[in-house]
Amino acid sequence: MSDLQDRMKQAVARAAVDLISDGMVVGLGSGSTAAHMIRFLAERLASGSLRDVLGVTTSFQGEVLASELGIPLKGLNAVDRIDLAIDGADEVDPAFQLIKGGGACHVQEKLVAARADRFVIVVDASKLVTRLNLSFPLPVEVLSGAWRQVQATLMGMGCSSADLRMATRKAGPVVTDQGNLVLDVMVEGGIGDPAALEARINNIPGVLENGLFTGLADRVLVGDIVEGEPAVREMARQV
Ligand code: 5RP
Questions:
Q1: Considering only CA atoms, which residue is closest to atom 8 of ligand 1?
Q2: Domains and CATH numbers, the chain
Q3: Number of the ligand 1 atom closest to the C-alpha atom of 105
Q4: 207-210 and 181-186 as β-strands: parallel, antiparallel, unpaired?
């Protein structure tokens, strides 16, 4: 990641933390932008400028980071509400439809997003697309015993590829926080109807969840570079 991209991520993460108020239960997303947000939240709690915030993490990554930084955490089953969830995304289209799961955390991310009263996305400008999946593959989490069967079903549906995600610095595939595998799916020409495909893929036996997030995001904050400096703008939703 370039230094410029990281500065955009930091700027947008800081802006998202400004949306958090005292006493909130906050969903803490995964990935590098969300990690900046967790660090800025910890700073605000340590300085006393925010109080009584409880976090609900969406991954092992977030849980380790937030607990190391002293953010009080509870699990999804132990909270009665989530006021606000803040998370990154891999692609965002003009209707606030998303591809997530670049970090293979989309199962827990979608659970937290679906539970939250408000779901705010934090991205740098490189994540904005006119149509989903023209370049970023759609992650699909599958039971390990079913990956070949699900792969065959996806190819039978007309997907152009459905590759088992392989790990780096570990032999074999990426294993998710839930102990499952991930297929990275491409559709020729991109995804025309994300909501329909989201439901259709989740209906395949052996699929846990896919990384299409439709009808969930309320706001999208975008980190940009304006005149050489990081700037944050709020995206206006189309359709
Ligand atoms: C993880 C995710 C992340 O939010 C997504 O990959 C964006 O990550 P980053 O902020 O590092 O670009 O969905 O499953």
A1: 31
A2: 3-129+215-234 (3.40.50.1360), 138-208 (3.30.70.260)
A3: 14
A4: unpaired
